[in-house]
Amino acid sequence: MTRSAAFLVLGITAVYITPAVNAHDGEAHRDAGAPPVTEVAAPLAAVPHKLSNGDLFVPKAVQHLLGVRTETLAQGRVTTVLKLQGEVIARPEARTLIAAPETGILEAPEGDWPLAGIAVKAGQVLAYLRPQITQRDAAKRTAQRVESEQRALIDQINVERLRLQSSASEGQASGNVYYEQALAELEAATQQRDQAAASLTDRLPLRAAVSGVLLRSNLREGEMVIAGQPLFEVTNPAQLRVAAYSFDPRLAAKVQSAHIAVDTQRQVLLRLRAQEPLKEQPGWRLLLDVADAGAGLVPGMPVDVVVDVDADAATQQLSKACVTGLNEGGGVWVHVASERFALRRIAACDAVNPSVAAIGNGAVSGFKPDDRLVVVGGALLAQYQ
In b/e form, how buried is each residue of 20-48, taking b as 16+ CB within 10 angstroms? Predict the structure, then answer.
């Protein structure tokens, strides 16, 4: 198709897509009773088209229909609000682990098996551990129990003998050194006998070392555990932390303040602690300590973190004006004249999180302080490229 034919097609198309023009005050396009007049094709200057120098010509009427809005390139620093998804976690120093003292089988305490999220008190029995011993150890402990029983029986006979002797000679056994020594030996032998018997049949109570919230309870009744295996984890509910996730490795340096909006009237303030990369996946996470101990948060709760971030005004504006989906990365439309727009190419737009510009200062250097950027309607202008 020749250039003249293409222009003719554009003109004919404009006839069908251009709405009727209403008369302004003091004007009469035609008499009220006159028959309708056949509309003529609009010239090329009335439709958007690309100029020879690469700029885009867009008439004022079309700009109004597309809702194009422009802003002068901003200068200085601004504070922008960033919303991140996060979760409540326990601080490492607030966690207490309860491990298995030896190999055995878990048994439930009186009542139900403790589940994660319940409140526990210091000394509360979370479970019982029934030790599992080998046949050799069982035989050894049985022999120790028999030996302690024989020793306790001999000590009992010795105590009775000394008591009878003391009663016959002095009338009472108190004050006799030998009698008191025999009583002490009998008590020690009795304790050894009981411990030896308990080592074969008794179970060990697993108690919470501190009061708090049960954070982890992945095991169940009847499971076999080994010595030193972590069983329960209790955390102090007054020492909590929030992990907020982002893809900006420099975000921690730009954070001014952060909080959690619990409801419309109450906010929980957060203190920035550190930033660390995620393990085995791209991204970073901000670690923020909860300042209010009575915020009503529990570990594992998902929260929305509101962060006030310091940003360069021009970079922030370019991130808002940047248009994606172009053949060569991103671009920003500049309003160079009344009805002309020029596309300035940049490396890429921050498509992941537009609230924090990741374009970089290098892109800002390609613009002038008096440039007017298209901040609304840029994607619609790109369709005429």
Answer: eeeeeeeeeeeeeeeeeeeeebbeeeebb
pLDDT above 80: residue 120: yes
Domain identity same for 110 and 223 = yes
The reply to whether 209 falls in a domain is yes
Q: Is residue 271 part of a domain?
A: yes
For residues 209 and 245, membership in a common domain is answered with: no
What pLDDT shows up at residue 355? 41
Cβ neighbours of residue 248 closer than 8 Å, sequence gap 6 or more: 284, 353, 356, 358
- The pTM (predicted TM-score) of the whole model is 0.51
Same domain, 107 and 229: yes
Token pair for 47: 């439709």
pLDDT per residue as tens digits for the range 285-306? 999 999 887 777 888 889 999 9
Give a yes or no: residue 192 inside a domain: yes
Domain that holds residue 226: 96-235
Residues 214 and 266 reside in one and the same domain: no
User: Are 139 and 111 contained in the same domain?
Assistant: yes
194 and 292 fall within a common domain: no
- The angle at the Cα of 311, spanning 274 to 349, to the nearest 5 degrees, equals 100
53 phi, psi to nearest 5 deg: -85, 5
Share of the chain above pLDDT 90, in %: 14
Q: Which of 85-89, 171-175, 309-313 has the highest mean pLDDT?
A: 85-89
Q: How many domains does the chain have?
A: 3
> What six digits make up the tokens of 82?
């960033």
Q: What is the DSSP string of 248-271?
A: -TTSGGGEEEEEEE-SSS-EEEEE
Q: How many Å apart are CA 313 and CA 352, to the nearest integer?
A: 19
Q: Is 222 left (phi over 0), alpha (psi -120 to 50) or beta?
A: left
- 277 pairs with which residues across the strands? 284
pLDDT in tens, 147-157: 888 888 888 88
CA distance 182 to 116: 52
